[in-house]
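Changelog note: in this version the structure field was regenerated for every chain. One regenerated record is shown below for reference.
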Amino acid sequence: MDDLLQYLSANPVALMAMALLALLIFYFLMKKIIKLVLILGIVLLCIAGYLYYKAPNEFSDKIQTTIEDVRTHTGDIMEKGRGAIEKGKVFTEKVDRIVEKGSEFFADKK
């Protein structure tokens, strides 16, 4: 692995070729994933249309309950996310203090 990294750092043309190859692979993978998502979306729309056609009254009731469930769960997730952000802020403040103390320590050593 070290030999490969040394070779790529010594030969920028090879590095560009590897980067181009990686970008092409990423592009084709994303293209396939997008096609899969579109096909899955069309299938889900067809299934929803069929269910609505078979029982329009039950379908709207099910949709309303599903929407309410999504709203309640989304609110819970938002609260958990806000808590995680606050914990992250506290953590970064602690890290900043540690870095400042470390830089002061090493400045005093010089």
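Spot check on this record: The mean pLDDT is 83. The two ends are 37 Å apart (CA to CA).
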